[in-house]
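Moderator note: this is an archived Q&A kept for reference. The question asked for a predicted structure of one protein chain; the sequence and the answer are reproduced below.
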Amino acid sequence: MSRPRITRTRTHTATADAPKALETSRAQAPMQLLRLLHLASPALPIGAFHFSQGLEYAVEAGWVTDEPSALEWIGGIAGASLGTLDLPVLHRLQSAWKQGDDAAVLRWNAFLIACRETEELRAEDRHLGAALLRVLVELELETELFSANAAKSVVGVSHATAFAFAGARWNIDGEACLQTYAWAWIENQVLAAVKLVPLGQSAAQRMLHALCARIPPLVEQVHKLTDSDVGISSALSAVACGRHETQYSRLFRS
């Protein structure tokens, strides 16, 4: 009786290559962090400091008068708008950029701008998006999808679209990109409150510390939202933004 034939198979090289891939990932991580810090820096010349997103009218109307009410206002918008609209769309945009899905990029970009309730908010989003694209061109990142002429079109380009483009091209981790975008938004709102309420620097640091703790749950929530869940529920903020358009004395453009 003959013995059964034993077939030997080669071990897949993926296991051997795993340490190299891990080493490459670790080597890239510091540069990715630095790229994110660059995108979130207040020194980035996109003019984010010009906008309060309705906070200026909220102070004028007496809705925001001190540190607790400012914290409640900013935290409320973060939970009902930033976390349910901007971050989920940013996540989808970065995925679309990475996959080269131009149709999805254009669709989500148009959706995000259409969700801005007032002309000021739409103008702000287009301004920040176009300004960031101009900065990215200087950093040797350019896309034909939103050229100089396309950025001036009726739809325009949103800030999140340009931010997601940079994140995708620099191969930045999606979670880190979401966290950084949320941090930049929160920081800008707190700085606006410092000028408008006004608040001291110690109050600003306490607010930033408290609001930072809300970012991880907002980012975690992004992955649980379906496309039909994406939207906003910040009615009072929309009222403030609308009334700010005719406010007599203003420091901010929104």
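Archived answer notes: Confidence is low (pLDDT under 50) at residues 6-14.
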